[in-house]
Amino acid sequence: MPYKVLVIPGDGIGPEVVEAALHVINAAAAKYGVDLEIKIAEAGDVALRKYGVAMPPETLKLADSADVIFKGPIGESAYDVTSLIRMRYVLYANIRPVKNLPGVPVVKEIDCVFVRENVEDVYVGAEYKIGDVAIALKVITGVGTRRVARVARRYAEMRKRKVTIVHKANVLRVVDGFFRDVALEELRGLEVDQMYVDAAAMELVRNPLRFDVVLTTNQYGDILTDLAAQVAGGIGLAPSGNIGDTKAMFEPVHGAAFDIAGKGIANPIATILSAAMMFEWIGRGDVAQAIRRAVEISLEKNIKTPDIGGRNTTIEVGKFIASAI
Ligand code: ATP
Ligand code: MG
């Protein structure tokens, strides 16, 4: 049975980086004999302009029947596409590894994995405006915290067995306090410490190597992972996986970056490394390793886009990495 992969190119630089990544996915699947059934569908601002909905019913149907979704960034309609996919399939853990790569100017040495809760917090969409007051509800549940903490535990057990819980329980005593307490309980037996989110931001720049696995809530994770990606060498290199119990979605951390769209200069590596995470998730760690190695080879050979000091185009980088597989 082939793995059904739904590809959503997305907006801005999305179609460019996804096209480059598809070269790599196809090369890797052919070389390693992975049976993929790839379908491509529209969603995002492009779909909104064409059909009046950001997530057309056809795309949603394909997403429902897919095993895994591979997605480029979405522009203005991110909430209607990215958040919808995360919520609909309960992709409750957002995995964002952060690690230096060869041939990339380094801000600081870093090697950690963020496990960000992905379906709760202030992103549940419970926002209200009442006269002169605007309210957003921050929702944290025990079941939601336990399941994402278990993912953090799995990663810690594969790594240095250390988890840092990031929260702001000194101010948000009830909600963040609950997240911390439930997480602490779920992580018993591992080396666990905790840090306020503001201190974590500082430490990520000052001494990033102190982090191994970072477990945090949705919004703090959103912000800290952009910061951490830049510490590692740039947002154009940062991959991510959105994991649930039966389905998953893989996408770059970065957004649609309209300022550089259509110029052929977007870095496809974040998207290509997201493809590596996808192969890992379907149980093909060997293919993931081959893709990561091919990425390193391209960087060592100086085949790179301008954001990291190179002179190659998006598609040149994609094709080179595909050929290096
Ligand atoms: P969002 O609002 O979804 O975060 P965004 O348009 O702000 O989307 P970001 O990902 O936050 O996009 O990117 C910020 C800037 O970083 C972009 O405007 C772009 O200049 C740069 N950038 C982002 N991704 C890439 C990439 N893959 N390659 C090169 N530069 C990038
Ligand atoms: Mg942004």
What is this structure, in a nutshell?
By secondary structure, the chain is an alpha/beta fold. The chain has 11 helices and 12 strands.
Question: How would you describe this structure to a colleague?
Answer:
Pfam families: Iso_dh. Helix 1 packs parallel to helix 11 and helix 10 packs across helix 11. The chain has eleven helices and twelve strands. The model has no long low-confidence stretch (mean pLDDT 97). The strands form two sheets. The chain has a ten-stranded mixed β-sheet with strand order 2-1-3-12-11-4-5-10-8-9, sandwiched between helices. A two-stranded antiparallel ribbon has the order 6-7. It has 325 residues and is of the alpha/beta class. It is globular, with a radius of gyration of 19 Å. The two termini are 24 Å apart. The protein folds into two domains: 185 residues, Isopropylmalate Dehydrogenase; 126 residues, Isopropylmalate Dehydrogenase, CATH 3.40.718. The chain binds adenosine-5'-triphosphate (ATP) and magnesium ion (MG). The site of adenosine-5'-triphosphate (ATP) has 17 residues, from loops.
CATH architecture of the largest domain: 3-Layer(aba) Sandwich
Q: Care to count the β-strands? A: 12
Q: Which cofactor or ligand species appear?
A: adenosine-5'-triphosphate, magnesium ion
Overall average residue pLDDT: 97
Could you spell the SSE succession in H and E letters? Answer: EHEHHEHEEEEHEHEHEHEEHHH
Number of helices: 11
CATH superfamily of the largest domain: Isopropylmalate Dehydrogenase
Rg over C-alpha atoms, rounded to the nearest angstrom: 19 Å
Helix content: 40-55%
Q: Could you give the order of strands across the largest sheet?
A: 2-1-3-12-11-4-5-10-8-9
Largest sheet features: 10 strands, mixed
Poorly predicted runs are none
- In the CATH hierarchy, what is the class of the largest domain? Alpha Beta
The end-to-end distance, rounded to whole angstroms, is 24 Å
Query: Class by helix and strand content?
Result: alpha/beta
Could you name the CATH topology of the largest domain?
Isopropylmalate Dehydrogenase
Overall morphology:
globular
Q: Approximately how much beta-strand content do the residues carry?
A: 15-25%
Q: Count up the domains.
A: 2
Domain Isopropylmalate dehydrogenase-like: 4-321
Protein name: 3-isopropylmalate dehydrogenase
EC number: 1.1.1.85
GO molecular function, one term: metal ion binding
